[in-house]
């Protein structure tokens, strides 16, 4: 779609029409991920043309312009391939930085924090990615930090070796190891699992027997919110994006108050 001017226009026009027909406030693009120089160029062209079309539609109809956002890689550099950051900054109202899925059974043969805020041993962490976006020219006030309402479960190679970055034999609980927050809480209770909050990486994990789960719990989310609002990365970000807020989100909300606390902190800067 993004490779040709005609198909870009068709997509843009239909997306604007769809948003208006349902009374949406805006549109969010999810391209995971432009992976060549050509695709990055096409990504930039799509955003530029989308912004022009949105502004023209608003001017012609007298309506407020639709908001434009995009879900992006945790860093402005996608495996040595740079996003067109200036175009992204000029075209979008904000970016949703997908600072999660750093470690998972499908691509990691050791345990690891799926969504670490920091990582002393690696540049793969949310703070490193946010700094890269800012240093590349993305205004901090257009950056939204994503965090997960799910985790990943591994099978430990040795039940007595249960920290971060230890050997595993594959996924646990589900085929790909993914597990929702509600299921994680149930696993902890039903198995008397040991829970650990690691302040160095800012992440949580639990284990029972040979099953090990990495995830974000209350203290991690609170720390991430404070990072976003209290100049944790030298500047204040626009906000936070929980992924995803369906299913057990509603059932856990009354019990843990994670999201209420999160948004309260953000809105009371």
UniProtKB/TrEMBL annotation:
KW Transcription (keyword) present: no
GO cellular-component term (any): extracellular region
Gene3D superfamilies: 3.10.50.10, Glycosidases
GH18 domain mapped to chain residues: 1-269
Keywords: Glycoprotein, Glycosidase, Hydrolase, Signal
Domain of life: Eukaryota
SMART domains listed in its UniProt record: Glyco_18 (SM00636)
Protein's name according to its UniProt entry: Glycosyl hydrolase family protein with chitinase insertion domain
GO molecular function annotations of the record: chitin binding; chitinase activity
Pfam family, one: Glyco_hydro_18
Similarity comment: family membership: Belongs to the glycosyl hydrolase 18 family. Chitinase class V subfamily.
InterPro entries per the UniProt record, alphabetical: Chitinase_II/V-like_cat, Chitinase_insertion_sf, GH, Glyco_hydro18_cat, Glycosyl_Hydrlase_18
Gene Ontology annotations of biological process type: carbohydrate metabolic process; chitin catabolic process
Tagged with keyword Transmembrane: no
Originating species: Theobroma cacao
